[in-house]
Design a protein that fits this description.
By secondary structure, the chain is α/β, with parallel strands linked by helices. It is about 35% helix and about 20% strand.
């Protein structure tokens, strides 16, 4: 099904006159990968990103197969792209990501317009795959044109063959590990991205240093189970995520650290201690639990219990009382009873979850849960989802309202979309704040008093500029 393609030379010539159009579905890992694709193809083929598909010579889709709707969006969009290709037959269409890994040749059967199919671990081979697709297209001896497919798992090779990171902003994502070895019964990630593989410690720090030199102030360390990171150091020792965060903290210019997404079983004491030892680590934790029922967690093969999860959160909040907690919740997992769902609601309320993701269980082919009996109607699942989201929204609103009058340390990211006289930045607990300010504050940390809580953002006023800045003590959002 797959072939091996070696990375194209950075001096690759290109006959392309248009640009590159990329659509990204799914998680932050996919966003990170899409940025790398764009950077790579600009260097090898001179392709620059465009905002409209009709302006592109190469159209790429980076896909997600976690939920069925996300997967079906792929084929719906490819139907539209087929029309664009008919207007300009030399266009190249590629599909990458988890759907590509899962479906392989099926994509070509359902969408004959696709020229290139690549997995998350082979995006570095994309330039060579595009060249091969063009060669096949131009070879009259090949009567039955085929897609170029590589959905293999070459582990860490991808990171060794990607260009140096480039960003236009003050916050950047850095992938530190790939894949998942947990094999939860509902999840396709181990099958589409492979098992857990960590990047070497020094490679990660090098990437962070390059980003810091470009003005990045905030680093978000990424991985399917980022807190399972185990990177080899130069001396042969193994660094866990705690050691890595200490290394990132020491890099000049990096003043804020996030990490996502984590697994409860990997929240070791050394990582928890970082909330006391590393002030640059934000007071926000995204730690998916999926269900508040021990029975359902066992069926999901999460290998932990609710009490253990609550114990972890108590330990972190003992060090950071103002910690904002978010998570993921699957509603209507096969066999979920009303009592199971009530246990989940109880947990959400007890731990005061902030903005979180909740969605109805979606059966994924090839996963164990796909064969579990499920006698709960879709209508009932939808009602449960509404109840969950209503509770989460109410708690999110309460946390935002509790921030009124507090002074928050805000990293100024850009001009506000609301007014050219306003700036937009982000708090430690991941809320966007809009406030009046000069553009020269972009890239700086400022102290902002929160004056208004809106549905999706906050308003505030600057009370301390960078020159006058003194770090504000963590706020306690009494609810």
């Amino acid at each position: 099904m797959s072939q091996t393609f070696h990375p194209a030379s950075s001096n690759s010539s290109s006959l392309f006159t248009g640009g590159l159009y990329v659509i990204t579905y799914g998680c932050q890992m996919n966003e990170y990968d899409s940025d790398k694709m764009a950077s790579l193809l600009e260097k090898t083929h001179g392709l620059k990103l465009v905002t409209e598909p009709e302006d592109a010579d190469v159209l790429l889709m980076n896909t997600c197969s976690v939920r069925e709707k996300a997967q079906e969006k792929v084929f719906s969009e490819l139907g539209r792209w087929e029309k664009w290709k008919s207007l300009k037959p030399n266009r190249v269409i590629g599909v990458g990501g988890c759907v590509a890994s899962q479906e392989g040749k099926v994509i070509r059967k359902r969408a004959p317009c696709v020229d290139v199919i690549f997995g998350p671990q082979t995006l570095h081979r994309l330039p060579a795959m595009i060249d091969e697709a063009l060669r096949i297209r131009g070879d009259d001896r090949i009567k039955k044109k085929k897609a170029v497919i590589d959905i293999s798992f070459p582990e860490i090779e991808k990171f060794d063959n990607l260009p140096e990171p480039e960003v236009n902003g003050v916050s950047a994502m850095v992938s530190v590990m790939e894949g998942c070895s947990k094999y939860c019964t509902f999840c396709v990630v181990p099958y589409t991205r492979g098992e857990e593989v960590s990047r070497p410690y020094d490679d990660v720090l090098h990437e962070v240093r390059v980003l810091a030199q470009q003005g990045v102030r905030e680093i978000n360390l990424l991985g399917q189970n980022v807190n399972a990171y185990r990177g080899v150091m130069a001396d042969g020792e193994i660094a866990d995520l705690a050691v890595l965060m200490h290394g990132v903290r020491a890099i000049n210019g990096i003043d804020r650290i996030r990490f996502t997404t984590s697994h409860p079983n990997e929240m070791t004491q050394s990582i928890i201690n970082c909330y006391a030892e590393i002030p640059e680590l934000v007071s926000h934790l995204h730690l998916p639990i999926q269900s508040g029922s021990d029975r359902i967690l066992a069926m999901m093969k999460r290998n932990h219990m609710v009490l253990e999860y609550k114990s972890t959160i108590r330990k972190v909040r003992a060090l950071r009382p103002n910690l904002c907690l978010s998570g993921d919740f699957i509603i209507g997992f096969p066999g979920e009873s009303c009592d199971d769902f009530k246990e989940t609601l109880k947990l959400v309320e007890e731990l005061n979850f902030d903005r979180s993701f909740s969605f109805i269980y979606s059966e994924r082919p090839g996963t164990p849960a796909a064969g579990f009996p499920d006698d709960t109607s879709l209508d009932k699942k939808k009602r449960r989802l509404v109840a969950m989201q209503d509770l989460l929204n109410a708690q999110t609103e309460a946390i935002s309202n509790a921030m009124l009058g507090t002074v928050e340390r805000v990293l100024v990211e850009r001009l506000s979309r609301h007014s050219f006289t306003m700036l937009a930045g982000r708090t430690e607990n991941n809320r966007v704040v809009n406030f009046e300010g000069s553009p020269d504050l972009i890239g700086q940390f400022v102290d902002v008093e929160i004056t208004e809580a809106l549905n999706n953002s906050l308003r505030g006023k600057v009370v301390a500029t960078p020159e006058a800045h003194t770090h504000v003590a963590p706020q306690f959002y009494a609810l």
